[in-house]
Structures are given as C-alpha cells and as structure tokens.
Amino acid sequence: MTREVEGEELDIELNLSSLEAYFHSTELHIKWMKIAEEVGFESVSSEKRTDSEEWEKRALLGILHQIGITTIGELDKMLRDASQWGKDVLAQFRKISPEDFTPEAYTYIAVFILVLYSRKDFVNQIDYKKLNIAPGFIVAIKRL
Q: Where do the structural domains in the chain lie, given as residue ranges?
C-alpha cells in the first residue's frame, strides 16, 4: 500500500490503512498542523498528541466517508488545492472560534478543518455526535 501512495498511484480505496500510508508518505498532516500553530492554535504536547491520533484518524475517515470522499486521490487533490487558501481558513477558524472552545493543534485537526471547509455543502449533514467531535468545533466550522 505505501508503495502505491509514494508512487503517486492514488486511485486507492480510502480506508484506515490507506489513510495512514498516505499521511506517512506525504506528511501533509504535519505541514498543516505546523501552519495551524503559526496562526494561533495552541500547541499540544507530543504525548497528548500521540494519545489522540488513533481517534483523530478514525474520525477523519468517518468525515471523509460522510462527505463522499472515497479514494486517496480525492483527498490528495483536496489537500493540495488547500495550499492556496488553507492558511487563511485556519486563521479565520481560530479567530471565529467560540470563547469556550480553544483550537488546539492536534495532529490532524487542520486536515479536519480544510476538508470540511472544502466541502461546506456537507457540513450540516455530518453526524458529529457519532464521531465524538466537540460542539465548539462544530460551531466554528459552521461559521466559516
């Protein structure tokens, strides 16, 4: 699986294994996490970040499936397109977050935001409770 991702053959079914291989190969989640910190998201200790990564990957996969993203290629295009507008969106998300919600730079949080922003037409259709996503996060996403 990893060789397919590294070789740019991205018409791969989106599942937990392919998602992990994609991020291991591209490290785009790390790039976006660092940009989130640059625009004011609170830094998170590496221990706290590591503890949440499994949940984050599963929740991200759930969101991607709910918005109709079915291949690694579709995710890759979305994240590469975000290079033109992603930093501004993350800064806006930080600025409009509710007072009782402090955005923290977990490993995949920026990817969540970029994915949801790029498919805003699906934001109200996602079952956030099922994915155990914080209400403040949902409020900020809907304000974008």
A: 2-143
Alpha helices in the chain (DSSP H): 2-6, 16-26, 28-38, 46-66, 72-81, 86-96, 109-118, 128-131, 135-143
pLDDT of 93 over the 70 cut: yes
Alpha carbon 74 to its chain's center: 14
Q: Which tens digit of pLDDT belongs to each residue from 6-29?
A: 546 788 999 999 999 999 999 999
Residues 6+ apart with CB under 8 A from 114: 32, 78, 79, 82, 86, 89, 90
- Residue 87 CA to residue 59 CA, distance in Å, equals 22
